[in-house]
Design goal:
The protein is of the alpha/beta class and about 140 residues long. The chain is built from 7 helices and 5 strands. About 55% of the residues lie in helices and about 15% in strands. InterPro entries: Methylgl_synth (IPR004363), Methylglyoxal_synth_AS (IPR018148), MGS-like_dom (IPR011607), MGS-like_dom_sf (IPR036914).
Length: about 140
């Protein structure tokens, strides 16, 4: 599965610690991350990461493009809810795309750990449910 990892500055260490704690889970998936977050994960967790641009420089939009193309299976985006950011429209667009494409997105450490626990159990049925629903809608076979 393709998993996007994004964290605002005050949340980067928290995300790195999550990845280190669940290294075996993350090691069996393809990881994508924005700028500095990807660098920190690669250096500290010693896992390969497809690094994209920094969030404010278009990295959030790059992740969004992968979501829109149905090439991302989950997004962990640890946000700082107390700080207004210049690129907030990009963040909002990314979260909207996750909703449109039915991609699970965790925005805090609690929901991130729940998502990782599902990955750990190989409980990945959400992708099958989404694909079946979309197929039924296209083919007109909805129940």
């Amino acid at each position: 599965m393709n998993i996007a990892l994004i964290a605002h500055d005050v949340k980067k260490e928290e995300l790195v610690n999550l990845v280190i704690a669940y290294e075996k889970v993350f090691a069996s998936h393809t990881l994508f991350a924005t700028g500095t977050t990807g660098q920190k994960i690669a250096e500290e967790a010693k896992l390969p990461v497809v690094r994209l641009k920094s969030g404010p420089l278009g990295g959030d939009q790059q992740i969004g493009a992968l979501v829109a193309q149905n090439e991302m299976d989950a997004v962990i985006f640890l946000r700082d809810p107390l700080v207004a950011l210049a690129h907030e429209p990009d963040v909002t667009a990314l979260l909207r795309l996750c909703d449109v494409q039915c991609i699970p997105v965790a925005t805090n450490i609690a929901s991130a750990e729940l998502l990782v626990k599902a990955l750990e159990r190989h409980d990945l049925a959400w992708r099958n449910v989404v694909h079946r629903y979309r197929y039924e809608r296209r083919s007109g076979t909805e129940g």
